[in-house]
Task: structure prediction
Amino acid sequence: MAPEKEVIGQKTLPGNSSDDVDIALEEVALNEVMARVSINLRHSQRSPRGRLRKFLVSVKFQTIIMLTILVDISAFVVETVLDERGEMTNEAHWNLAGIEIGTLVVYTLDIILRVVAFGPRNFVQDRWNIVDLFVVLTAVVVIQTPGGSPGGLVVAVKVLRFLKSARLLKIVGVMIRFFRCFHRFRTGSLAAKHTVSKNKLRYVDLNHNFDLDLTYITPDLIAMALPVKDTWQGFYRNPLNEVVRFFKVKHNGHFRVYNACPECPYPDEKFEEIGGSVVHFNVQDHTPPNMEQFLEFLVDVRKFYVGDKRQTIAVHCKAGKGRTGSLCCAWMMYSKVASSSEGAMELFAQQRTDSSKGKICGVETPSQVRYIRQLWSHLSANDAWLHRGATIPSCPEPEIALHCLKLEAGLLPFAHKMKRLKALVQCGGENVSRLALETTSVEATVTSISLEGVRVRGDVRVAVFEELTPDFSAQNAITCVPNANKAKGIILFFLFHTHFINLSGQENGNEDLAVPHEYLDPEAQENGYNCFRLSVRDLDKAHKRIKKGKHPPGSSIALYWTGDESATESVFHTATNIEVE
Result:
């Protein structure tokens, strides 16, 4: 009998001699596992109790409870003031007692719903729930209608009045209401976290009291939002201590966190204390990792998985979607969990999305999508997959010259109302930030901007800015902000790698991305230029403003360039044998 074959981070079925067959079977098995996990998790959240839990942590319900607490506190203050002044009337007593009984009904209903939704066992695991229950039960006993007689309510009100006349009980009343505010702050924090998560699937574990913006994409690949140490941010984001507790309970000593959020640092020591490690990638918000970072990530994960199948990796940026999704898709492509770049992005979106909230949540930023496709092309061209066991070759960086940027089909419909425009070209450096060219300003009504034949290689960013002031610097505007979309004056931008500038949609299995033959620019051909054309849907920032009417749906941008086509035109051209160690 053939021995079982070991594959890094995976298992193959015994008796198969073909690597391709093994990997195909692994993909089927893993997809079945993930389908079951996904179905079970979503089923638990769609069950009546699951829907009730979502309602209890919703902003709407928490607002109702907070308003109830405010009414309760207001009534208590009014009652105290009237008692101190000796101005309490029978009518006021009745009204205030009615308010107190009404608020108590709401508190009692809240506790009953929580017990039903989370289960008695999980309810009592939180000591604050026990205190809350004790407070409500005490109040119920105090105002319990005696004997069920018609005059019982009158007796209850009189008893309530007598007890509240004691100074000690007034102090207790203040403490009770203070506790309710504090306890509701905690549950309100959970509501805020669910709101900030939007349609991302959260990890909910009632047995261990986890409710985190965190999702298992595969059994050993986690996507999550930023863990924060700051108390205020912890109100609506993943608290660092809770994330650390999650890894201690679930993956103690067998995990690595990949931090792609340089703008929000936190202490790595928290994870290291429980046997984990943290690897940092400096990636600007709303941009992709560069090609070198992609390859470094794959090599590091591969080394981490060697020899121990218990290892798990977690990737996060700020929201746990764009930069996180780019790196997660990279690993799923390399490990053959997905059979294409489109398949990887689809799988990530399906796993990361809470389908009960509608819109699919995946990698949406055009340049991030472009770089995922570039990476797939690089891996395919070199047959560089995890199961092959070979090192990953570095990506060639052919030098090209950029000549002109054309704004096509009315890309800027309100150009006559805009200030002058500047084009910015950056190449290489940290976050593709090294200045290659910043053009002089031109009228916004022009249809082309000269790029002066600037020579670039490797990772390139091209951006168009509105010149806000006479001394405006586009380079300073985009390098001084953590989020490229929020750079002052920026209208649109896109990133690409010069080795893949001829990568078409058809070559990548997506015919919708291919430029129609009749739309190829004859002017570019006559002048010996190559044309890299992108629809407005494929331009960062601009793609979000189509629905707002800022850019027409059929508009586009064209980049005219020249260079060594033999090094760029074919995605099937084998890269050099320089290996990334």
About this structure: The mean pLDDT is 81.
